[in-house]
Each structure stands twice: as C-alpha cells, then as structure tokens.
Automatic annotation (TrEMBL):
Catalytic activity line of the entry: UDP-alpha-D-glucose = UDP-alpha-D-galactose
UniProt entry tagged with the keyword Isomerase: yes
EC number per UniProt: 5.1.3.2
Species whose genome carries this gene: Acinetobacter qingfengensis
Protein name (Swiss-Prot/TrEMBL): UDP-glucose 4-epimerase
Amino acid sequence: MKQSILVTGGAGFIGSHCCVELLDHNFNVIVLDNLSNSSIKVLDRIKKITGKELHFIQGDIRDKVLLDQVFTQHHIDAVIHFAGLKAVGESMQVPLTYFDNNISGSITLLQAMQQHRIGHLVFSSSATVYGENYPSPLHEDLPTAQPTNNYGYSKLAVEQILQATAKANDLWSFALLRYFNPIGAHQSGLIGEDPNGIPNNLLPYVTQTAMGKREVLSIYGHDYPTQDGTGVRDFIHVVDLAHAHVKALQYLFTHKPSVGIWNIGTGTGYSVLEVVKRFEQVNQLKLNYQFVERRAGDVAVCFADANKAKQDLGFVAEHNLDDMLRDVWHWQSQNPDGYA
Ligand code: NAD
Ligand code: UFG
C-alpha cells in the first residue's frame, strides 16, 4: 500500500519541490498550507510536472480542530513539516508572530500527531542553529549556539522541543534537517522561489536584477577573510534538498531513530562574487552589482560537513552550482512575476 505523507507548508518554495519528489517516489501527498507565503497556482504546476494529483487543504497548523479533522479523515504515515515564517529581518520586528507561528504551530502539530499516534516527522531546521562562531565545515556534533535573530531562535527552540519530546515517549521518530542555502528551481521552470516584496536572499535578488526589476545587486562586504573578500556559503539545489527529505523519511521508516540530525548541504562553499560571475557566464548576461558594507548578522563563511547525511541517509547532492544558476534563471525568466 502507498504511504501517505502530510506536508505542512507544501505550497512553498522547498515544500513544492518536495511534493514533486514525493509524488515521483509514489507517496500519497496531503498538503496543509495557509498560503500566507505561497500561491494556490503551485498545485497545478506540480500536477503538470508529475502527472499526479495531491490532496490540498488550505489551513493553519495552529488550528487544532482542523488538524484533528485532517488526521481523522486521512490515513497518514508521516509528516514533513515546512510550514513557518522565514524572514530574518521581519522576525526582529514581530517576534511574537514568529514564535506563535513557528514554535506554537509546531507544538500544536505535535499534539495532534500524538493524539493520532503518528510519530514520524521531518523538520525543516537551518544551519543558523550553529550560531556565528564555529569555523566551517560545520558538523552535527557541534553544540548549538544562541542564534542572533528571532527566526533562528524559533528554529533552535523547535529542535530542542523535538529532542525533549522524543525522550519522553517512544512513539516519536524525528529527522532534524539543517538546511544550508537552498537555491535553484525545478528544471521544468514551472515551480521556483517567489518571494514577496524586496528579496532578502541572494539568488532572488540576483535574478530580479537580471530581469531589470531591481537596479543593482548590493554585495554585502568585500573585506571578509575569504579568497575574494565576499561571504562564502554552501548553496544547494532545491531539487537535491527535496530529495534529501525522501531519504530522511525512508530512514525514519526503516531505522526509527528517536532523533536524527543531518546537515543538508553540498559540503562546498562558493563566494558571493563567484556566484555572481558564474551566473553571468552560465546565462550569458551581465549583472549590475556594487560592493557595499557588510550586512549585520552575516558570517564570513558557512558550509556543511555533509558526510553524516551521506553515511546514514545515502544522500549526496547531485547538482552543481551551474545547474542551480541555470535552473533559477530558467524559472525567473519564464515567470517574471512568479506565480502572479
Ligand atoms: P516558504 O515561505 O516558501 O514556505 C513555507 C510555507 O509554509 C508557505 O507556503 C506558507 O504559506 C506556509 N505557512 C507558513 N505558516 C503557516 C502556518 N501557520 N500554517 C500553514 N502553512 C503555513 O519557505 P521555504 O523557503 O520553502 O522554507 C520552508 C521551511 O524551511 C521553513 O520552515 C523555513 O524556515 C525552512 N528553511 C528555509 C531556508 C531557506 O533558505 N529557504 C533555510 C533553512 C530553513
Ligand atoms: N547577499 C548579498 N546581497 C544580497 C543578499 C545576500 O551580498 O542582496 C550575501 C549575504 O551577505 C551572504 C550571502 O549573500 O553572504 C547569502 O545570503 P542569503 O541572505 O541568501 O542567505 P544567508 O546565508 O544569510 O541565510 C540563509 C537562509 C536563512 C538561514 C541562514 C543560515 O536564508 O534562513 O542561511 O542557515 F537562517
């Protein structure tokens, strides 16, 4: 019998790519999303790519009554939990909104799962839980550190809640996936990242500048102790990241660890300037950019030790930087206004 996966936040950037991967791996997919940062149009696109239907429920993970209905009406084998707010700057302005959505939302989801005896969950964590002070590569054994922003704090808090919850009850089997920098888009050009307003992250800013929607890309910092003075990050193709979720699910089903923690990155760092230059080269265009002051809260270098995911999950990222930059431009140029 097919296994059924509840995907919270499945209409979002990473969630939509994960739905494609799950459908391609023959899972039944039930998406619960309040569409606060995504478009209903993504559902048709997923169907176009996979030729398969998923079940969509528009709603909020903090809605206890709705969650009870979802778990009562659907047979669910595991949950992949993407739903959350993710804008670092905004999290400093409205901390309680972030804590309510990301932390309380996760607790409400866990309560419903417990009530319905569903114990497998994959959680979207972030490299932000390592804090700012460790040299890369970052290994999962490093103690976590206090994040400097409220978004990061919400991720660390949920990680800690999951670890404490798992200790108390052998129902649970949790995968904590610490993502590095997800970029790119599905090769079809049908789904991709569609940020609201002015993008915070590098790649959406790059593509919107290339489109002429933004005048100039500001590169934050040219004086970091790196090969060219710009920040270094571990960029991972969102399709690889989606694949890692299927691997993690399979691991939970076969090994049933109480808690497993895995970095999901490539293990290679590229500088911001390298990314900009490769983007120009791969896509045969010129990008308007300027160097400006460092951005507060940024670290110089952040990349993963990716060995644990390889050993335990058999996960290795397959797409290289050029693939990521080609696919992200394909998506943006095919969809100049995203899903609008
Ligand atoms: P996204 O905003 O595109 O997707 C999140 C989805 O969750 C959206 O569709 C949104 O509508 C939905 N959502 C938000 N709050 C909800 C709620 N209370 N109930 C139901 N649905 C809700 O973000 P993404 O980039 O796809 O990120 C997915 C997850 O991965 C998030 O938890 C994010 O914090 C985490 N993460 C992202 C990155 C990154 O760089 N994109 C890095 C590390 C971790
Ligand atoms: N950058 C620019 N110009 C821009 C945007 C970004 O130069 O317009 C630079 C940043 O200074 C940084 C690099 O590009 O050096 C990557 O920045 P992003 O904002 O794309 O990503 P971050 O590494 O800051 O953040 C990401 C995720 C967060 C997560 C964090 C740590 O977006 O969710 O990694 O894991 F918390």
